Amino acid sequence: MFDYHAYLKTVPTDPGVYQMYNTQEEIIYIGKARNLKNRVSSYFRQTDIMPKTRALVQQIAKIETIVTHSDSEALILESNLIKKYRPRYNVLFRDDKSYPYLCLSQHTDYPSLTFYRGRKKEKGQFFGPYPSSIAVRETLNLMQKLFKLRQCQDSFFRNRNRPCLQYQIKRCTAPCVDYITPQQYQEDVRHALLFLQGKNEQIIDDLVNNMNAAATALNYELAAHYRDQIASIRHVQEKQYVTADGENVDVIAVSSLHGSSVVQVLAFREGRLLGNKAYFPKTPPDTTEEEILGAFLPQYYLNPNIGRLVPKQVLINHDLQEQALLEQSLSAYANYKVNLASKVRGQRARWLQLAEQNAKLAIAAHLAEKTTVYGRLEALQEILQLDSLPERIECFDISHTSGEATIGACVVYTTQGPLKSDYRRFNIEGVAPGDDYAAMYQALLRRYKRLKTEDSKLPEVVLIDGGKGQLQQAEKVFEELQIAGVMLIGVAKGTTRKPGLETLFIAGQATALQLSPDSMALHLIQEIRDEAHRFAIIGHRAKRAKKHTASMLETIPGVGAKRRRSLIQHFGGWQGVKNASKEEIARVEGISRAMADKIYEALRD
Predict the structure, then answer these.
(1) Interatomic CA distance for residues 268 and 66, integer angstroms
(2) Percentage of the chain modeled with pLDDT above 90
(3) What's the pLDDT at 227?
(4) How many structural domains comprise the chain?
(5) What is the pLDDT of residues 278-321, one digit of tens each?
């Protein structure tokens, strides 16, 4: 038993952090205090002890304290130690490795606007951080449609001698081959920057002037282009919540249900809603929503390794016991005044209501799916170190018999499981028989070129049934189409081809990954891979059977398309025609007895 009477005599009254250990020398709880002696003593009172606190105290074998100079310093130290040791009795949030930005490069004439993740080491102008990679991709896609800025790497840009697919699908103005002057391109860059800063009305004024000038010059095609651009920007503007002063605001709401909790974050930057993200913390039993929110804020913001922006105003849906201390610590960390507010009116109240509504929807979905697909997606997120739960996974497989009737198949999984309405098959044409690499390239190119053209939702993860060679084809396609922020994974079978021995090759990573056979993440990958294989084989067999049937009948003189169709429909397929007698064939409409004899003999030969 821990002798707390003797220990409390040695505890200082200064501010600081305390760490509680169990008999296995594991840290089970980390806390902060303005007065260490008073705070630690409160755990050993005989009355008014919460059940979760009593369970914690029963496991204490040792307590260590760290004295700090101030309350704010104690708060920051507590947050860092919780992230490092992850004690079981603290509220824990998964700490993201890095956050996505938009980066405008420093190219003199034709800067690119690209997806960027990590600390801002590259030269350029950064916008963000965005709450998730999904939000970045949506913004990039929107910017491509509105302003057609290039998104390719400089090495790709320098070596072009003809426009790429982005130009063909009207997502780029092809500056790589001088289809646009530097002056015209810089005007698009200026408008893009204004858009990212929330100054849509200024852009519209410029475009209206350009439209009028083009109409005066009788250049009606250009005037129509400006008109469509204005309409697109106004449509986007109607869908966004825009602040009157264009400031940065985070809106954070916590919701709990049946012992599970979620923290929903809405990020407003330069007056624009960049997106939202849900965090599902690991919480001890009987933890209140106020305690969860109070633990979330320092873990979310006070992390210099990530460099997350702390906005000047953070809206929260609960008053906090140490709200003044949190404001003081965040202000010191950010070097400007940070305000936490829960009682707001007007537009900010609507934002807070929106965050609470999203939090309730997220926790309901989390509980409904946690034991099935959701739990395995969480395991996959943890293994792949994704910044958010993958909401859409696509998997590709190629099926053929000795190069004949090659079919490419794509299956789609979401948080609800397989989304069969989005399954697709591709008839592979124009490649050498048995060339799986070229077949995979064609299937991927056709799939994602169409998704980009139609502005359809892109997946967070793409699985490729195959090893490094197939994965390289996927990388080529995604570079050609300038798609960023999607994780590409090759799923290679082991040497014995037994389930559980798969090797994962992840694009951009030198080391392959092999998961434990009982891994929930591996089980999900296997299920998706096997579904793609099944879907591809069914398509391949149907194509092969159809080809054999059609080709055999096409060789018979006098049997045209109409008679072939009548035979197939009458007998229900190729096998029925092959097994039919002369008399049965002659009973088909349009088939004479002489023609029936000819068909019968030809099929037997």
Answers:
(1) 37
(2) 20
(3) 81
(4) 6
(5) 888 888 877 889 989 998 898 888 876 666 778 889 999 999 88
- Check residue 449 and give its pLDDT: 92
Contact 430, 409 (CB under 8 A): no
The span from the CA of 344 to the CA of 277, in Å, is 22
- Catalogue the E-assigned strands of 260-390: 260-269, 272-279, 313-316, 339-341
> Domain holding 426: CATH number?
3.30.420.340
pTM of the model: 0.53
- Contact criterion met (CB below 8 Å) for 227 and 211: yes
Pair (516, 463) in one structural domain: yes
Residue 291: inside a domain? yes
Let me know if residue 418 belongs to a domain: yes
Does the CA dihedral 339-340-342-347 come out positive or negative? positive
- Helix ranges restricted to H, 370-458: 373-384, 436-453
Last residue of a domain, one of 189, 214, 241: 241
- Give a yes or no: residue 390 inside a domain: yes
Contact 574, 568 (CB under 8 A): yes
In angstroms, how far is CA 335 from the centroid of its own chain?
32
Which of 234-243, 256-265, 537-546, 593-602 is the least confident region?
234-243
Residue 18's domain is classified under what CATH number?
A: 3.40.1440.10
At 159, list the tokens. Answer: 């070596």
List, for residues 212-234, the tens digit of each pLDDT value. 888 888 877 778 877 877 776 66
Which H helix or E strand runs over 21? strand 16-21
Whether residues 438 and 568 fall in one domain: no
The residue segments making up the domain with residue 211 are 200-241
In the listed set 32, 67, 85, which residue is the last one of a domain according to the structure?
A: 85
* DSSP per-residue letters across 462-495: EEEESSHHHHHHHHHHHHHTT--S-EEEEEE--T
pLDDT for 244: 42
Nearest to 73 by CA among 39, 30, 34: 34
Q: How is the beta sheet containing 16-21 ordered, strand by strand?
A: 27-33, 16-21, 62-67
- Tens digits of residue pLDDT in 326-356: 898 888 888 889 999 988 888 888 889 888 9
